[in-house]
Design a protein that fits this description.
With 203 residues, this protein is an all-alpha fold. The chain has 11 helices and no strands. Helix 4 packs parallel to helix 6. It starts with a helix and ends with a helix. The mean pLDDT is 92.
């Protein structure tokens, strides 16, 4: 409920900004992105996309690339996987010449996730490994944890040991206070141990 109320307040703020007319573009972009974020949380994907689209029109460079990545994630949520991949590619293209490896890592993780959902496991492994390398270079801990989580799951799907990656992901998620991420990685680790016949470790 809080997210629904927050979305209404952000929309009112943007309407007020239109009336005032002299609100800085950076402030409009920040509020529009926040609107996209809260709408995404309660599944109002059209309103979320509108927020992100409005925000991207007000920024450039790495910020625009990051927002295009959020639009790609919305496409993934609605199972439009090929459109999501194309949109991630657009976002990555906007980073050409940029040294922003943190944003590039976030986008690479998103692309890996889409490929994994399509059961294109080997490609997902390749992109997860790319994301991990970028995240480590940029010290982007959230993207690093997500990349390790995806890589661990993908490796186990092709009967390779993904436990080290999952264990490292769990450690980083806990460090970040991301209990949902840690729980998902623990679940995958338990499933892998179960498939190996290691009942005690699975429990």
């Amino acid at each position: 409920f809080a997210n629904v109320v927050a979305a209404e307040l952000y929309e009112r703020a943007l309407s007020a900004a239109d009336l005032v007319g002299d609100v800085p573009s950076a402030e409009r972009a920040r509020v529009s992105e926040a609107l996209g974020d809260v709408c995404e949380r309660f599944g109002a994907y059209d309103r979320s996309a509108a927020g992100y689209t409005q925000a991207r029109e007000l920024v450039g460079g790495a910020d625009e690339a990051r927002l295009v990545g959020k639009l790609a994630a919305l496409l993934e949520h609605t199972s439009r996987y090929e459109d999501a991949l194309a949109t991630y590619d657009e976002a990555l293209a906007r980073l050409e010449g940029s040294q922003d490896d943190a944003t590039r890592a976030e986008l690479a993780v998103g692309r890996a996730a889409v490929l994994y959902r399509q059961n294109r496991v080997e490609e997902a492994i390749e992109w997860a490994e790319r994301a991990i390398a970028l995240a480590e270079a940029a010290d982007a801990r959230g993207s690093l944890a997500h990349g390790l989580f995806l890589l661990g799951g993908a490796l186990s799907d092709v009967e390779r040991d993904g436990a080290p990656e999952l264990e490292r992901a769990i450690s980083i998620y806990r460090e970040l206070g991301d209990h949902a991420g840690a729980g998902a990685a623990l679940n995958n680790l338990g499933a892998q141990r179960y498939s190996e016949g290691n009942w005690e470790a699975a429990l």
